[in-house]
Amino acid sequence: MKPDDKVCYCYNVSLRKLQNFARRERPAHASRMSECLGAGTGCGWCIPILRRICEAAGEQPPEAISDLSPAEYAARRRAYIAEQKPRHTFD
Ligand code: FES
Fold first, then answer.
1. Cα of 68 to ligand 1 centre, how many Å?
2. Count of domains in the chain?
3. 59: pLDDT confidence band, cut at 50, 70 and 90?
4. Burial of 88: CB neighbours in 10 Å, binned 0-12, 13-18, 19+
């Protein structure tokens, strides 16, 4: 994925916006990543990625997505939605 690709599909939040937020705000808890345009407050799919971006303080794309194409990432989200498993959480 590239910096302008979406990480949070529910709120159209890009990797670049999330990394800049994490770098600037240095959130003490991953749940604060939701203050970046509501990321993670919809379906919950992106929460594990938001957690990794937070932990890296925005310095590098998390390995979990850096090698994924936007199409692969979107397909995995569609599968997450279709499976109707319990929603990812920040805790
Ligand atoms: S993709 Fe981020 S909350 Fe749904």
1. 17
2. 1
3. confident
4. middle
48 falls within a domain:
yes
pLDDT score of 66 more than 90: no
How far is the C-alpha of 30 from the C-alpha of 22, rounded, in Å? Answer: 9
Kindly tell me if the per-residue pLDDT of 28 is higher than 90.
Answer: yes
What CA–CA distance (Å, rounded) separates 19 from 60?
8
- Structural domain of residue 60, as residue ranges? 6-83
Q: How many angstroms is it from 1 CA to the middle of ligand 1?
A: 16
Residue 88 counted as domain residue = no
Return the best residue to mutate from 1, 5, 6, 8 for the ligand 1 pocket (most ligand atoms within 8 A of CB). Answer: 8
Q: Residue 7 has what DSSP assignment?
A: E
